[in-house]
Design brief:
By secondary structure, the protein is an alpha/beta fold. It has a single domain (3-271), classed as Metallo-dependent phosphatases (Purple Acid Phosphatase, chain A, domain 2), CATH 3.60.21.10. The protein is 32% helix and 18% strand. The chain is built from 9 helices and 13 strands. The chain has helices at 13-23, 45-54, 65-74, 88-91, 96-104, 130-145, 149-155, 170-183, 218-222; strands at residues 3-6, 31-34, 59-61, 109-112, 117-120, 186-188, 193-194, 209-211, 224-227, 236-237, 241-243, 253-259, 266-271. The strands form 3 sheets. Strands 3-2-1-12-13 form a 5-stranded mixed β-sheet, with helices on one face. The protein has a 5-stranded mixed β-sheet with strand order 4-5-9-11-10. A 3-stranded antiparallel β-sheet has the order 7-6-8, with no helix packed on it. α1 links the parallel β1 and β2.
Length: 272
């Protein structure tokens, strides 16, 4: 029995299936973690989600920002009008309600205390401890599952607040938390979120900006965090995290890793 983790698929179904063949995935024995952004940009978002649904309990998914964009589009919102969202194959499908219901029941964060890994789409805020992180993730998950889902989705499309405070009201805490879990890359020196810069840190010329994972946090020391989201970062494996979005939707590669208690990591990739 093996545990594999795959980065942002973004509707690239053919490449997804090629990668599953490459790792020789067996749904009856193996477990597949998915780092979010299952949909958008690629041509076959419906096929990707339908296949993952059919995997049943052998697949564990956390939600990414593009998965939230799909939820917004389903509710006929237009959160970021400059984005070219490609969801028609899902929204026009007779099974669209079923797919959205499945999406609403996926995780924000997945933690495996036996393997000592955490899976999250974008990252974990440096000022949070594990209890607070899981509490916020659970609140988001509960709202997505509830009858208040549409109302909740309508509140999210803001870059403010961009800085954490325990004094924030619950609405603002959840807006901030969704942005952390699904959109965060760089932080300013005051630990406010920066939403503009996406460059690889090697090419970052701003002394004001620092990648979130370079800060100290007890969570980062105890668990290795696996993220997707940051395609310009590419594949990175450091002491406290592994980045596995390698830009399949941009014609680069789709990446999987095999993880274990021994902390040995094996990488697999297919061209896109």
């Amino acid at each position: 029995m093996s545990t594999y983790v795959i980065g942002d698929i973004q509707g690239c179904y053919k490449e997804f299936k090629n990668l599953l063949n490459e790792i020789n995935f067996n749904k009856n024995k193996d477990t597949l973690w998915l780092a979010g952004d299952l949909v958008n940009r690629g041509p076959k978002s419906y096929d990707v989600i339908k296949y993952i649904i059919d995997l049943g309990p052998s697949a564990i998914t956390v939600l990414g920002n593009h998965d939230f964009y799909l939820l917004a589009s389903y509710y006929k919102l237009d959160p970021w009008p400059h984005n070219n969202n490609i969801f028609e194959d899902i929204l026009s499908n007779k099974d669209s309600d079923k797919i959205i219901n499945w999406l609403r029941n996926q995780k924000i964060i997945h933690i495996d205390k036996n393997l000592n890994y955490i899976l999250v789409h974008a990252g974990i805020y440096p000022k949070w401890d594990l209890k607070n992180t899981l509490m916020l993730a659970n609140k988001i998950e509960d709202l997505l599952k509830s009858s208040k889902c549409e109302e909740f989705i309508r509140t999210l499309w803001s870059n403010e607040p961009n800085k954490w405070s325990n004094d924030l009201n619950i609405k603002d805490k959840l807006i901030f938390s969704v942005n952390v879990f699904t959109r965060m890359r760089y932080l300013n020196k005051d630990l406010s979120l920066d939403f503009e810069n996406k460059v690889n840190p090697k090419n970052n010329n701003s002394p004001e900006l620092c990648p979130w994972y370079e800060y100290d946090n007890e969570i980062y020391k105890k668990y290795k965090i696996i993220i997707g989201h940051w395609s310009t970062l590419g594949y990175q494996e450091q002491n406290n995290f592994i980045s596995i979005d390698t830009g399949c939707a941009w014609g680069n590669k789709l990446t999987a890793i095999k993880i274990s208690e021994e902390k040995d990591v094996k990488k697999y990739q297919v061209k896109c």
